[in-house]
Amino acid sequence: MQEEQLRTVKYSLAVDLKFDKIALKLGRAKRLLFIQMVEYFYRNKKDPADFNDELLKNTLLKQHQQYIGFIKVQESEYFDPIRVEINRMAERQRNLLNLFNTQVLKSNEQLFQNQNEMLSQQQIQMAKFSQTDSLIAKVEVKLYTKERLKQEFALILENYVKAREALGLMFSGKEKEALLTKVMAQVRGL
Q1: What is the tally of structural domains in the chain?
Q2: Burial 159-174 (b: 16+ CB within 10 A, else e)
Q3: pTM for this entry
Q4: Which domain holds residue 184?
Q5: Residues 6+ apart with CB under 8 A from 1
């Protein structure tokens, strides 16, 4: 193996500080960085003193134009149709949502009115049921009273018949009249 012959380059302390910063930033040894810089300038035939290097500008501009062209092609081929479809879909969904909201709101309002109407009808029916219950109770009382009256009247009539038969033919009309008056008073007392 042949040993590499080393050469030295002298430069100022300010340049050395800049060179250290560049080497640290790129994460390379200063020797390797120097070798790579020489290779770069040698291959590209660039003059480091020329900051307005037209070749570099043209290369960068060409690359930027290629990137921009690629992005525009991607945008026109993929993103524009997607954006148009998304806008259509969003508009359809807005229309559906508006229709849904109007229909649902109308339906809910109608349902609410129907429920209120049914509630008022139920209250009316409840009032009628309570009136019917009170009437039925009164009728029951009257039926009970009527039955009781019939029973008492039948009892009075039986007593009258028994008393009249007991009196028989021997008693005077006056006693029969007194018996009849007594029975009539009992009937009126019912």
Answers
A1: 2
A2: ebeeeeeeeeeeeeee
A3: 0.33
A4: 143-188
A5: none
